[in-house]
UniProtKB/TrEMBL annotation:
This is Nitroreductase family protein. The lineage of its organism: Bacteria, Bacillati, Bacillota, Bacilli, Bacillales. InterPro entries: Nitroreductase (IPR029479), Nitroreductase-like (IPR000415). It comes from Brevibacillus ruminantium. Residues 14-188 form the Nitroreductase domain. It comes from the Bacteria.
Length: 210
């Protein structure tokens, strides 16, 4: 019997690399994939609006449709699961349902709910660029968390920004509310990821001010 090895958070972060070659014979049990998605959805978000949706592509026919959209990147066909991260451009519409639920659970009172919902509505109404910025920023937090959750469960990932967004929207009937911001392949590596060099902290950290 194979014993599951639990990685620490630090080990997961250091072990995660972008994998582009997958063992197509290694499926992901749906329960495990759902747990990865559940963990991804615990990411933080502005006003708790949860600006992400996950388009899960596991059917081989759909993955074949995705291949030319992703400019022929073979991993979208070989990986058992492909997750399209959808950034919610109308996340303000989630405010009332979210805070009504919080009210019902006793997490906020009516005054707090009304104040927060008004803040959200005013912010989105008065600043059109905010909707796009917040959608991409917050959905990216969920995307990173998804990749770490996958690695913790023993699966590899690759974030992909190279795809035809308009063709993806059309081929998969994605509503205008959602902006595809990233594609993430998930599966078992058939070939280890290429090692990468990283800047040291002396190159990355600015103390207090430039």
């Amino acid at each position: 019997m194979q014993t599951e090895v639990k990685l620490t958070t630090e080990q997961v972060m250091e072990a995660r690399h972008s994998v582009r070659k997958y063992d197509a014979s290694q499926a992901i049990p749906r329960g495990v994939l759902n747990e990865i998605l559940r963990l991804a959805a615990t990411a933080p978000s502005s006003w708790n609006l949860q600006h992400w949706r996950f388009l899960v592509v596991t059917d081989q026919t759909h993955k074949e449709r995705l291949l030319p959209i992703a400019y022929g990147q073979q991993q979208v066909v070989d990986a058992p699961a492909v997750i399209v991260i959808l950034a919610d451009l109308e996340a303000d519409k989630s405010a009332l349902p979210i805070y009504n639920d919080s009210l019902a659970k006793g997490l906020v009172n009516e005054q707090v709910r009304d104040t927060l919902v008004a803040q959200i509505e005013n912010a989105y109404r008065d600043n059109p660029q905010l909707a796009r910025d917040e959608a991409i920023r917050n959905s990216s937090l969920a995307a990173m968390q998804l990749m770490l959750a996958a690695k913790a469960k023993g699966y590899d990932t690759c974030p992909m920004g190279g795809f035809d967004r308009d063709a993806l929207i059309q081929a998969f009937n994605i509503p205008g509310r959602y902006l595809p911001s990233m594609i993430i392949t998930v599966g078992k590596a058939s070939v280890p990821a290429h090692p990468t060099s990283r800047f040291g902290l002396d190159e990355l950290v600015i103390e207090n001010s430039f």
